[in-house]
Design a protein that fits this description.
By secondary structure, the protein is mainly alpha-helical. 81% of the residues lie in helices and 0% in strands. The protein is built from 3 helices and no strands.
Amino acid sequence: MAIEHIFDSASSIMTVISFTTFLGILLWTFVLKGGKDFETQAALPFADDAGDSAGRNAGESGHG
């Protein structure tokens, strides 16, 4: 009976710790980190797009 009470308490405590950790991650991601980093990283796939394709085509033409 006492062991069941300990496991029930531990389960409740782990739920609270997990939820607090989740809220901390959200806070760090969206509030403290800011939107500037995300905007910069979101634009990375489009940066130097023409330069990369030209470099790949020039490199491939030498192999043939």
